[in-house]
């Protein structure tokens, strides 16, 4: 028994002695208030798996980060220039280290039955610094520093939703409204930084924030698009349009998708529903014209284009669709074989009338959209040819060449 005890002592004490030796430089740096040096030494020591989950290292890390945080806080108190980002980042590190220490102690309790020793320290850190953690997250977000805001937001929401937060923080610091607000900012920041895997982390909580819900649906839809998840893209986009029918991007993207899929019947249904809401009438009529044109329902295209003109006199698209439809209607006129017959002359006159109307509309579109040559030039080329407009035909021919 005595021999066994001696062996155990020999096994334990060298390890303990090695740990004390490794931690000694950190203790010295802290004693000399060289907090930045201590932080660097802690980070280096944690590369060794033996110290990665060392409780004492967490305590030293908290002390070092508090020293750095207090330095910035003192400058603020004395109205001296201070580093706001450093102040909030050290606040985050204090909370993160406290949470880490709690996790290590809770794991020891579950695995070995070892009671937490630093529960009071953990709770004091959360109660003292948690408000500043949330403030820092909002500070970085407002500044557009989304990558810097994300760790703070993630830590804040994680704490509020955790058993640690529930038993430590007062109810007003983990209210559902605060949780949803910070979760919404996290979702938005993850989207803006293209951290697609993180966008959905707190989606359930984020969607409870009514003030940002339309923006969040947009983030979710565009994230799905970036990840080429068509089902999710349509799900979020449809939800967004149904909930916010006055937001033009939702309607435009939804109709664009179905136009690309050649589902023109669906586009017409969406346009009808949008017009019932009596908003985005211009966008609805443009999409309607596009769908009807692809369905070759040219008379209805003209009617829709006229309605588009009535609701938006500045919209150039009305002239394009009207001209395209009239040109198609002219081409559909059947000319009798006998060019000298009355029927031929009547049909030819009807055809020329369509072409003349089409030419006037497309020329107007050209005046309004001179840079959109790819749309108006080929059609004008054909119309000038049909109408024997020699000089105009030669001009467009040179443009096309």
Question: Can you give a write-up of this model?
Answer:
The protein is mainly α and 401 residues long. Helix content is 79%, strand content 0%. It is built from 20 helices and no strands. The protein has helices spanning 2-31, 35-45, 55-77, 84-112, 119-142, 146-161, 163-168, 176-192, 196-199, 203-206, 213-226, 230-243, 248-260, 264-277, 281-294, 298-311, 317-332, 342-368, 373-386, 390-400. α12 packs across α13. The chain is elongated. The model is unreliable at 1-15 (pLDDT under 50).
Topology summary:
Blueprint: H1 2-31, H2 35-45, H3 55-77, H4 84-112, H5 119-142, H6 146-161, H7 163-168, H8 176-192, H9 196-199, H10 203-206, H11 213-226, H12 230-243, H13 248-260, H14 264-277, H15 281-294, H16 298-311, H17 317-332, H18 342-368, H19 373-386, H20 390-400
SS summary, helix count: 20
Give the N-terminus to C-terminus distance in angstroms.
Answer: 102 Å
Unreliable segments of 5+ consecutive residues: 1-15
Structural class: mainly alpha
- Which strand-content bin applies to the residues? under 5%
Order of helices and strands: HHHHHHHHHHHHHHHHHHHH
The beta-strand count equals 0
Task: Output the radius of gyration.
Answer: 35 Å
pLDDT averaged over residues: 92
What is the percent of helical residues?
A: over 70%
């Amino acid at each position: 028994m005595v021999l066994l005890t001696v062996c155990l002592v020999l096994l334990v004490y060298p390890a303990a002695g090695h740990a004390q030796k490794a931690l000694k430089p950190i203790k010295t740096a802290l004693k000399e208030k060289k907090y930045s040096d201590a932080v660097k030494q802690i980070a280096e020591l944690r590369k060794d798996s033996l110290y990665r989950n060392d409780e004492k290292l967490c305590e030293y890390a908290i002390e070092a980060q508090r020293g750095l945080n207090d330095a910035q806080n003192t400058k603020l108190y004395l109205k001296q220039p201070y580093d706001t980002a450093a102040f909030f980042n050290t606040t985050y590190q204090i909370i993160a280290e406290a949470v880490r220490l709690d996790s290590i102690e809770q794991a020891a309790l579950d695995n070995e039955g070892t009671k937490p020793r630093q529960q009071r320290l953990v709770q004091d850190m959360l109660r003292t610094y948690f408000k500043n953690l949330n403030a820092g997250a909002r500070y970085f977000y407002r500044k557009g520093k989304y990558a810097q805001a994300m760790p703070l937001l993630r830590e804040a929401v994680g704490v509020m939703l955790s058993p640690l937060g529930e038993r430590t923080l007062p109810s007003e610091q983990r209210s559902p409204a605060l949780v949803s607000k910070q979760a919404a900012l996290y979702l938005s920041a993850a989207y803006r930084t293209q951290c697609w895997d993180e966008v959905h982390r707190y989606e359930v909580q984020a969607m409870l924030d009514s003030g940002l819900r339309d923006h969040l649906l947009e983030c979710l839809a565009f994230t799905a698009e970036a990840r080429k998840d068509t089902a999710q893209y349509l799900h979020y986009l449809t939800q967004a349009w149904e909930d916010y029918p006055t937001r033009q991007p939702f309607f435009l993207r939804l109709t664009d998708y179905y136009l690309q899929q050649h589902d023109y019947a669906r586009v017409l249904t969406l346009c009808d529903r949008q017009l019932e809401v009596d908003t985005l009438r211009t966008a609805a009529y443009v999409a309607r014209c596009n769908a009807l044109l692809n369905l070759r329902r040219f008379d209805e295209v003209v009617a829709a284009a006229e309605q588009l003109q009535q609701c938006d006199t500045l919209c150039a698209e009305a002239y394009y669709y009207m001209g395209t439809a009239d040109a198609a209607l002219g081409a559909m006129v059947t000319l009798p074989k006998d060019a000298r017959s009355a029927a031929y002359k009547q049909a030819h006159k009807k055809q020329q009338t369509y072409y003349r109307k089409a030419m006037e509309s497309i020329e107007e579109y050209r005046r309004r959209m001179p840079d959109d040559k790819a749309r108006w030039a080929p059609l004008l080329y054909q119309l000038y040819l049909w109408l024997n407009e020699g000089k105009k035909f030669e001009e467009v021919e040179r443009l096309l060449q």
